[in-house]
Amino acid sequence: MLNSKIVGLGHHVPETVVTNFDLEKKINTSDEWIKERTGIQERRFFKKGEDTVANMAAKAAKMALERAGVDKSEIEMIIFATITSDYYFPGSGVLLQRELGLGTIPCMDIKNQCSGFIYALETADNFIKAGKYKTILVVGGEIQSSVLDYSDEGRAVSVIFGDGAGVALVQATQEQDKGVLSTHLHSDGTYAEELAILDPGSSRPERLYKEMTNLDKTYCYMNGSMVFKHAVTKFPEVINEALEHNRKTVDDIDLLIPHQANLRISTAVGQRLGIADEKVYSNIQKYGNTTAASIPIAMSEAWAEGKIKDGDLVCLAAFGSGFTWASALIRW
Ligand code: UT7
Question: Nearest C-alpha to atom 41 of ligand 1 is from which residue?
Answer without folding.
Answer: 29
